[in-house]
Structures are given as C-alpha cells and as structure tokens.
Specification:
With 377 residues, the protein is α+β, with helices and mostly antiparallel strands. The chain is 27% helix and 30% strand. The longest helix has 18 residues, at 219-236.
Length: 377
C-alpha cells in the first residue's frame, strides 16, 4: 500500500481524503493547525509548517508520493525529495512556474500561449511609468491567494491600489465569460478534459461566487479553450490535475488568465456531477490507475458558502434546513469552526437537466443560506 502525503489540511485536503477512502492508500497530512478540516480524515496527521524546508522534507522523506492543496509550499524541499525518489504531484518544476505570477506570465509568452499583454513592475515607483497600460490588473508575483494580492487599477487616480513589490501588470481584458477548464494528466502523459465551467465571481471579494457546468459556448470557442488548455499542461510536463482559468472576450478571443496545479474550486461539482470527480482522478493518477470518465452525469451548479461580511466567530448556518429540503442539492460544509468575512466555509452543488432550474436554485440558495455567528463585527 502506497504512503501518500498531502501538504495542507484545508477543504481541498478534506475532499481528497474523502475520495481516498475508496482506494488502497495510507494517507498523511501536514498542517500547522491540528484542528484543520482534513486532520481527522487521514491515517496520520503531522503538525508542521508547509513553507518550512525541514518540516516538508522530514514529512515527505518516508513517503512514496506527495501532493499539495495550495501552491505556497516549500519547493526546495520538494525538489530534494524528488531527487531522492519521492513522486511529487505536480512536479516541482511545474509548481515553481505557476506559484510565481511573474514566472507564469513569462511561461505563457515563451510557449506562445495566448494571454493578456503584461509588464513587470518591481515597485510602485515603477508602476507609475506604465499609466498608459491602464485599465489593468496588478498581481503580486508571490504570496497572493484566493483573490488576495490582486488589484484592478482603472486609471492613474487609483495608483495607490498597486503593490510596492515585484508584480505583474496585466492589460485588462474586455471579458464576456470566465471559464475554467480542468485537465487530468497521467504519469505516462495521457490527458483527459472535464467539461468546461462558467464562473461568476463576487465583484468585491474577487472570489468565485457560483458556477454552472457545462459552460454554454459555441463549438469554435469550446475547441479553442480545449486546445489552449492542453497546450498549457503539456508545456508544464507534469502529471496531476490542472485547472486552467481563461477569459473569453466580447470578440470571441480566448486568453489564459491563470493556472492552478491542483484540485480546484471550479471542479467541486464533479463529486456528484461527473462519473469521476477531480479528487477521484488525482488518486487514480498518483496510484497509477487508469484515468477516469470525466463525462457529466447531469449539468451542475455550485454556490460557494462564504462567511457573511458582518460576522466573526463560531460558525452557524442559517437556512440550512430549507436548502436541504431542495431536490438534487448536496451540501458540503468544510468543518471550519470559526467564520469570518469572505472565508470559504463550504459549497452547495445542484444537479438538474434543466438549466433554468440550476439558475433558480443557485440564486435561491445564495439568498437563503448564510454563514453567520453570534458575534457581529
């Protein structure tokens, strides 16, 4: 039985472990918080810092394989473990390209992958030299996650929103749709694609609010998305699960926004909505089994459960009973004891052959189900 470690114990680790129960694998998790969502679901829990070289190295050196649930892990330790025979998903080389947004944009340019025009800035003073680039999006080179480290700058008047650190300034795309395309890559290089999803973001938090799969796209746009996503993952030369986020502009052009080298929020609906979920698929890849069937069982929508803006403290779920009364609705609560504004506390998946039903139910759920606490800010 293979020994496989997960670096990070949040909700992605939790859902990976729920799928791991179906396979002959001994699971290990390392996280700083022993009360994290994944802690009680693994065979072995190790308290440690996923960003610390020694902690990651000591955790991984007795294992057969490692995977991640967040990019900000110590890649020097992963590189050493790889050299010593531990299989790492994704490969360290691919992780390094992706975890730094400057390097990621350079990678797209070097491989002629369509992405918005960009310039690299090292400081706010340097940003001032590129006011002709606005409106644009300023992204921290490293350290950003889940909408943090990203600022939209519409004009020179908003210059103070920028980052006084190495960052990439991307020309703003006139967006018609935001699409996520998940691709699975086996250790032999075989690939399979999930149906793409339409993503709708919270404009204030810059977090995924809800999504619908499959995305409504003209065939020519769909083919373009699939071809670009495959080009990205093949250039990364790594097995694993990759979520390629793309923009479709109002003229029908497709641009890569970012790539995540792991299971991803945009694929959570696959647990109920597809024959092989993204979590099941990653275990198939790590354990060397054939790739699963990515076809949709039913069209699906997801609503993210985010902590309400005015609450911080022990989490309560107002409206949960009403949501659970709905047909073909599946609630996933991540087991985080405390809520805070914008924190990801869970998600709800809706299945229906009727797209209007999906749209109605996601709207109803967003208005009914609230994550609150007894303590208001």
């Amino acid at each position: 039985m293979l020994k496989v470690g997960i670096l990070g114990g949040g909700q992605l680790g939790r859902m990976l472990l729920q799928s791991a129960a179906n396979y002959p694998v001994e699971t290990y998790v390392m996280e700083a918080d022993e009360n994290c969502p994944a802690a009680h679901l693994c065979h072995h829990f190790v308290k440690g810092n996923i960003r610390d070289f020694n902690d990651v190295y000591q955790f991984g050196k007795g294992l057969d394989a490692l995977t991640i649930e967040i990019e900000s892990v110590n890649d020097d330790a992963l590189e050493k473990l790889e050299a010593e025979g531990v299989n790492v998903y994704p490969r360290t080389k691919a992780l390094r390209i992706i975890k730094n947004k400057i390097d990621q944009k350079k990678f797209y340019a070097a491989h002629e992958i369509p992405s918005s025009d960009f310039v690299i800035t090292q400081s706010l003073r340097e940003l001032e030299l590129h006011t002709d680039f606005f409106p644009a999006v300023h992204k921290l080179g490293s350290g950003g996650y889940d909408g943090r480290g990203v600022q939209i700058i519409s004009s020179a008047k908003e210059m103070d929103k920028g980052f006084d650190a190495p960052a990439v300034l991307e020309k703003k795309v006139n967006i018609h749709k935001e699409i996520a395309q998940i691709v699975a890559v086996s250790t032999t290089g075989q690939t399979t694609l999930y149906p793409p999803v339409d993503m709708v973001f919270d404009p204030d938090l810059n977090l995924l609010n809800y999504q619908i799969s499959p995305a409504e796209l003209a065939d020519q746009i769909l083919w373009k998305i699939e071809a670009i996503a495959l080009k990205v993952v093949k250039a990364l030369e790594s097995p694993g699960i990759f979520a390629v986020e793309l923009f479709v502009d109002k003229l029908g052009e497709v641009y890569v926004n970012e790539t995540a080298p792991r299971v991803h929020n945009s694929g959570h609906h696959t647990i109920e909505g597809n024959f092989s979920s993204q979590f099941d698929m990653l275990w198939r890849i790590i354990l060397g089994y054939p790739l699963g069937n990515t076809a949709a069982i039913f069209p699906a929508a997801i609503v993210n459960l985010l902590g309400e803006p005015s609450y911080s403290g022990l989490a309560k779920y107002d409206g949960l009973d009403e949501v659970l009364e709905m047909d073909n609705v599946f609630v996933h609560i991540y087991g985080k004891k405390e809520t805070r504004p914008g924190r990801k506390m869970g998600h709800v998946t809706i299945l229906s052959a009727d797209r209007k039903d999906l749209t109605y139910k996601q709207s109803r759920i967003r208005h009914v189900l609230k994550v609150v606490s007894d303590d208001q800010l």
